[in-house]
Write a structure and sequence with these properties.
Pfam family, one: Rotamase
Shape: extended
GO molecular function, one term: peptidyl-prolyl cis-trans isomerase activity
Number of domains: 3
Organism: Limnohabitans radicicola
InterPro entries: PPIase_dom_sf, PPIase_PpiC, PPIase_PpiC_CS, PrsA_foldase, Trigger_fact/SurA_dom_sf
Catalytic activity: [protein]-peptidylproline (omega=180) = [protein]-peptidylproline (omega=0)
Length: 263
C-alpha cells in the first residue's frame, strides 16, 4: 500500500549506527600515514553479507584492497585540491547530511509507536479509501510510430487475435506474454491512459493510438472488477511500513517546527 523501501532504508541506517557505536576497531590499513578505520571495513563486509555475500578472508582481502585504492585516490584528489571545488563540496555536504539524517532516524525508530492499535487504525483508513476502488485487466501493444499503431488497431478490428499481434508487433517486453499487464488499479495506470481505459467496454480496443514515453500504445480492456481489500494479516508488513512512514514524518516535522529556518 505504501513505500516498501522505508524499512530497508531504516535497516541500513541502523546497521551503520551499530557499527559506529561499537568499540573502536584496529585500523584496516595505513596509507601514507592515514589510517583506514576498521569500522569502515566492517561496514562494507556487513553490506556485502546483507546483499547475499559470505563473510570470508577472501572477501575481506578484496574489500581491504578496494579501501586502500580509494584512500590513495582520495589523497591524490585532495593534493590536487579537488575537495575545494564547489560542486564537490556540495556533494560531500549532501552525502554527510543524508548519512546523519538516516542514522538519527535509525536511533529514533525503536521509540516509534507501531502498535497493533495503530496498525488496525491504518488498515481501517486504507480499507475505507479503497472501498469503491476497481481493478482493470489490461493488455497493450507498444509501437515505435503512430502509423504502426494504427495498423495494429485496424488488424485487431479485422479480427486478428490481440495476443498474437502483441507477440509480432509490440516493442514492449510484455509482447511475449501477449501484451498482458495483468490486473492494475487506477492509480497504477498513466492518468492519460486511464481516462480512456475507464470508458472502454470489456474486450474492446482503443480506437486511436496514444502517445506515451514508452511509445505509441494500443490498449485492450480484458476485464474489470471491484478491488478486494486484502486481509489485515496479509497486509501487515505494508501496514508496518505505512505507520513507520507516518511516525517518521511526525518526528521530522517536530524537529522542523522547533528549528529556526530562514529563506
Amino acid at each position: 500500500m505504501l513505500n516498501k523501501k522505508l524499512l530497508t532504508l531504516c535497516a541500513c541506517a541502523a546497521l551503520a549506527f551499530q557499527v559506529h557505536a561499537s568499540e573502536p576497531l584496529k585500523p584496516a590499513a595505513t596509507v601514507n600515514g592515514v589510517k583506514i578505520s576498521g569500522e569502515v571495513l566492517e561496514l562494507l563486509v556487513a553490506n556485502n553479507v546483507a546483499q547475499g555475500g559470505k563473510d570470508s578472508p577472501e572477501l575481506r582481502a578484496a574489500l581491504k584492497t578496494e579501501l586502500i585504492a580509494r584512500e590513495v585516490l582520495a589523497q591524490e584528489a585532495k593534493k590536487q585540491k579537488l575537495d575545494q571545488e564547489p560542486s564537490v563540496k556540495a556533494q560531500l555536504s549532501l552525502q554527510q547530511g543524508a548519512l546523519l539524517a538516516d542514522t538519527l532516524i535509525a536511533k529514533a525508530a525503536p521509540k516509534f509507536n507501531i502498535s497493533e492499535d495503530k496498525l488496525r487504525a491504518e488498515y481501517k483508513r486504507q480499507s475505507e479509501l479503497l472501498a469503491d476502488a476497481e481493478e482493470y485487466q489490461i493488455s497493450h501493444i507498444v509501437t515505435a510510430s503512430e502509423a504502426e499503431a494504427k495498423a495494429v488497431i485496424k488488424a485487431a478490428k479485422d479480427g486478428r487475435a490481440f495476443d498474437q499481434l502483441a507477440r509480432e508487433k509490440s516493442t514492449s517486453p510484455t509482447g511475449q506474454k501477449g501484451g498482458s499487464l495483468g490486473w492494475l488499479m487506477g492509480n497504477q495506470i498513466n492518468p492519460a491512459l486511464f481516462n480512456v481505459i475507464a470508458n472502454l467496454a470489456e474486450g474492446s480496443v482503443t480506437s486511436v493510438p496514444m502517445a506515451t514515453p514508452e511509445g505509441w500504445q494500443v490498449i485492450r480492456l480484458d476485464g474489470k472488477r471491484k478491488f478486494k481489500v486484502p486481509s489485515f494479516e496479509d497486509s501487515k508488513q505494508q501496514l508496518v511500513n505505512a505507520v513507520f512512514a507516518n511516525e517518521r514524518a511526525e518526528f521530522v516535522q517536530k524537529l522542523v517546527k522547533a528549528a529556526k529556518v530562514e529563506q
